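Table S2 (continued). Query chain:
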Amino acid sequence: MGMVLADPVMLEKLAASMDRTAKEIPALRRKASELDVLSEVGHLSPLLSYLNETARELRKKAGILRTPSESPFGALAQYGLPAGLARKPGVGKEFESGLKKVLAKYETAVPEVRARAVKEYVEGLTPEQQAALVVADPATVGNLDGVPPPLRFAANRISIQRQYEKEKRHLEGLPEDSPAFARSLARVKALGQFLSPRIQKIVDPGTGKVVRREIPRQFLVFQPGAGSIAHSQSSPFADGKIAEVLGDLETAKDVAFRVPGVTNRLDNFQSFADGGVELLSNGDRVERSDGAVISWLGYDTPELGDSVDPAKAEVGGEELRAFRRGVGVNLRLDAKVGIFAHSYGTLVTSKALQAGMEDVDKVVFMGSPGLGPNIRSVKDFHLPNVRFYAMRAEGDTVSYTQGHGPDPADFPDITRLDTGAAFGHSQYYDGKAGAILGLRQVFAGQYDALKSTDSTLDEEMIGATEVRSLVGFLQERLTPEEVARLGGDIDPIAQGIVNGQMGFTDVSGPLYETLKDHDLLDKVPPRELFSEVTSLASDVAAKETYKGMLKGGSSESKALLYAGATKAASWGLAEVVTQPVEVVAKSTRAVNNWAQFAEVLAEGDLNTETWKKSLDKGSDAVTATIDLLNPF
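Corresponding output:
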């Protein structure tokens, strides 16, 4: 069976044979029915199901196995490298040895100095010798800054082919009910995509017409064994590091480095890489000829559980800084470099900038959880010649929570870009949502065309301010290490609020249990927690009432009065919900208060003079209404 599974042709033939057998079963059942012996062929129904299901699985595996297979010399040809000398056994060892001497000599040098030494050595070889070096040590050449990009692309293609074959063999030995099957299948499919050509749309410089062409993919980094293993039961392979280039890196006048956030791995890299195509293209997906985009997954991204821990950002920042400086030796001297960072990647970028990554012209932070508690404005980077931009889409919980410091979208000295119809945390590169337009303009240096925005949290989504306040309440009482211990437990609670799946009065229980599980109730006493949740719940209720009243045609003053009454009433009701251990009398009082408020509002007997006096003393409208009604 193992030999059959290794041959997609045999798999497809076997599937076709099962299809033919399955087609005959309905006729056999009809004949048995005519002869009144249907009970004698009861086994045919389960047999039919087995044949159909098995045929589908065989075709699925055949599809996996049909990824193009090529020799190292075929990989050289993909990027125009001569294979003649490389075909001679052992000839590349001489050049590999020479490269190792260069690396040993510059082992402690700064990234750009070492990269220039590597570049000088490799470019001193003939094209045939360079190709022989690629074949001799593809893992080193493919990931070494200073090596000319085409050589790195060819080397990494060889490494991808070898990894594909290794993981394909692993997949073939897994039963489909194994916990590792789904992740292993995703890995093999991803590796197969990396080996397949991509379709590129460009303007033909000769005719001026838009043409499509197949081109090999260009990987500047491929380290399948790097990083941690996100789910050890579902895959024996590390998450991996990888970086893809779109465009001509050595001639581009604009170069973009894209930095992703949490849960990005080799097996789901394609989703991240698609955003690079959107950035390089126009609305019709026609790609620029004078730009290059690097989708860089070159650090060990956190999972949700450790996304509140800045440790991986510290390491990732150093890796990004070194990568930028190393790759810089292969760029035009006048190339404009931009960093486009998303989510946890904004923290990684912040760490890189603070560590000395000064050779950038523009930076965009998207959906940022914060850039570190020490970065509260653009000035804190001390990079006066760098343009800084921020994006925060409506409903982006990550930005609302500020898990790693102030949201750069609120910095007083940053340009906040319009996000169009983008919603949530993952639509910044969506070609239809609108945020991509601003990213393309920054990338191309079209600064005068940029559209900015200054929306507040309340304008974006009711509850966003309160989510931020709740996280801040916890951060004030816990150390960074204790916050990290909470892991991803708080994140789904915050998302549930913003997504409308739970109200504030629903979160006190899960928060209490989370703090209890982590032995942190001494830092956040239940009474303080419930009081904070109650206050925030009443704020949300008031804002929803105010917005609803205005939408229904009420005057602003009437909407404010109703909002104040709702806040006061909901405070009492929320206390009952969030603190069930309190006396029943409080519940009765809250319900009575609510009934009284309803009567007052319905009859229009609210003492507006008292309300106005409270306003004159400096109270806001909601507080003035609470003072007027004074239920407690």
